[in-house]
């Protein structure tokens, strides 16, 4: 074969490889047929909303069903990690680390899976105890002086379930190696639910103005009162800052924000500095702050109920 023929053959092979790579990239960035990932996102949102509604239903039997659904949600996260994520091998061979903090991700996922497993089992035992209760819950939509009304409760638990699910989902999405076929699907579900959380929080802030929140529980000491107040304000701030920083990071990265089947194109041009700064917020600063504040919030609520034995404490937000 002459030199010219060899060069031509090399060019043709290169062109074939290039177009194959382009087609592969197209397939990777393509949405699933029938937008199945949007249906997954919708199912998670509806299941969380229904669980939150059932948890605060008038009828005791429906409340039991709500606790079983909540247990099922926690156990599903644990099963997803133990049966699926571990099987992918991505924990040992993740996308290359961007910062040394990324090496903590497998440990974080393990901790979250174990907490989900324990929470699922605890909720099943709560459901068993609830199954003996016969009292109807007389509750209006508006907040009362000493307890939250139905709208605030359903908003709190829907947001809490979605928010808690987004954390392991976001961590796993960020370790899936580039080029893995279903990487985009995780981003679609994560971003769609993130946008819904933001919308729910905005609605919740409007609702708080219309129906003032109850004063903090009278059984709290002055110090606990200060801590609970600070935790609530910080959680509201996180529920706004985390999705907003995700959106800004995504836009600086030049990627669209997905909302079910719709795609909101970036609102401004690509910027490496912008991606790094907002990525630091969304991926490191805010999640680590969140672990502290949310840990204090949940442990505080459990201490109030299980150690201090203030029986009315949880009942202000769920019955
Ligand atoms: C599954 C774990 C959770 C438990 C057990 C829990 C429990 C509670 C309880 C009992 C209250 C009422 C406090 C009171 O009586 O004054 C409350 C309020 C609140 N929770 Fe949670 N919560 C959880 C998860 C979350 C999550 C994930 C978030 C947000 C990211 C959150 C944000 C809030 C906020 C902002 C309030 C204050 C509500 C207001 O006054 O408007 N919670 N939580
Ligand atoms: C309440 C809402 C949200 C929560 C709690 C949340 C939480 C998280 C967490 C914990 C991570 C893992 C970060 C890491 O360890 O690297 C993550 C990653 C990510 N989030 Fe969110 N997020 C939310 C909303 C959003 C929104 C609205 C968007 C975009 C519109 C978004 C885009 C992303 C992207 C692109 C990643 C992956 C970054 C990477 O590949 O390194 N998030 N999110």
Describe this structure in words.
- It is found in: Cell membrane.
- The chain crosses the membrane at residues 38-56, 68-87, 107-128, 154-176, 188-207, 227-249, 288-307.
- Its cofactor is heme b.
- Residues 1-22 form the signal peptide.
- This is Cytochrome b.
- The chain has helices at residues 3-29, 36-55, 60-88, 105-130, 150-175, 183-210, 222-252, 272-307, 312-315; strands spanning 257-259, 262-264.
- The model is unreliable at 7-28 (pLDDT under 50).
- It has one domain (28-315).
- It has a two-stranded antiparallel ribbon.
- With 319 residues, it is mostly helical.
- Helix 2 (36-55) packs antiparallel against helix 5 (150-175) and helix 4 runs antiparallel to helix 5.
- It is built from 9 helices and 2 strands.
- The longest helix has 36 residues, at 272-307.
Query: Which compounds are bound in this model?
Result: protoporphyrin IX containing FE
Oligomeric state as shown: single chain
Distance from N terminus to C terminus (CA atoms, Å) equals 82 Å
**What radius of gyration results from the CA coordinates?**
23 Å
The parts where pLDDT drops under 50 for at least 5 residues are 7-28
How many DSSP-defined strands? 2
Helix content: over 70%
Query: Strand pairing plus helix content: what structural class?
Result: mainly alpha
Biggest sheet, spatial arrangement of strands: 1-2
Mean pLDDT over the full residue set: 90
- The share of residues in extended strands comes to under 5%
**What is the string of SSEs from the N terminus onward?**
HHHHHHHEEHH
- How many distinct helices? 9
Biggest sheet descriptor: 2 strands, antiparallel
Tell me the domain tally: 1
Q: Describe the global form.
A: globular
């Amino acid at each position: 074969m002459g030199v010219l023929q060899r060069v031509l053959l090399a060019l043709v092979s290169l062109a074939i490889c290039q177009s194959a790579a382009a087609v592969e990239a197209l397939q990777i960035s393509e949405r699933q047929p029938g937008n199945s990932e949007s249906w997954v996102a919708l199912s998670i949102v509806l299941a969380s909303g229904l669980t939150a509604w059932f948890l605060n239903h008038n009828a005791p039997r429906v409340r039991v069903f709500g606790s079983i659904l909540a247990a099922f949600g926690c156990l599903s996260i644990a099963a997803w990690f133990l049966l699926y994520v571990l099987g992918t091998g991505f924990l040992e061979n993740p996308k290359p680390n961007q910062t040394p903090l990324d090496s903590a991700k497998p440990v974080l996922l393990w901790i979250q899976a174990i907490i989900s497993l324990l929470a699922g089992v605890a909720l099943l035992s709560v459901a068993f105890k609830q199954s003996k209760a016969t009292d109807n819950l007389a509750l209006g939509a508006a907040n009362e002086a000493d307890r939250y009304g139905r709208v605030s409760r359903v908003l709190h638990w829907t947001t809490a379930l979605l928010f808690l699910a987004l954390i392991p989902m976001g961590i796993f999405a960020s370790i899936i190696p580039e080029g893995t076929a279903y990487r985009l699907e995780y981003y679609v579900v994560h971003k769609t639910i993130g946008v819904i959380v933001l919308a729910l929080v905005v609605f919740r802030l409007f609702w708080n103005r219309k129906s003032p929140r109850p004063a903090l529980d009278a059984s709290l000491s002055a110090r606990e009162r200060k801590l609970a107040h600070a935790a609530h304000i910080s959680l509201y701030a996180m529920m706004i800052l985390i999705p907003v920083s995700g959106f800004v990071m995504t836009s600086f990265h030049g990627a669209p924000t997905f909302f079910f089947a719709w795609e909101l194109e970036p609102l401004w041009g690509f910027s490496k500095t912008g991606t790094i700064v907002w990525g630091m917020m969304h991926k490191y600063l805010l999640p680590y702050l969140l672990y502290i504040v949310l840990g204090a919030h949940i442990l505080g609520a459990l201490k109030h109920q299980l150690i201090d034995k203030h029986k009315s404490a949880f009942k202000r937000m769920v019955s």
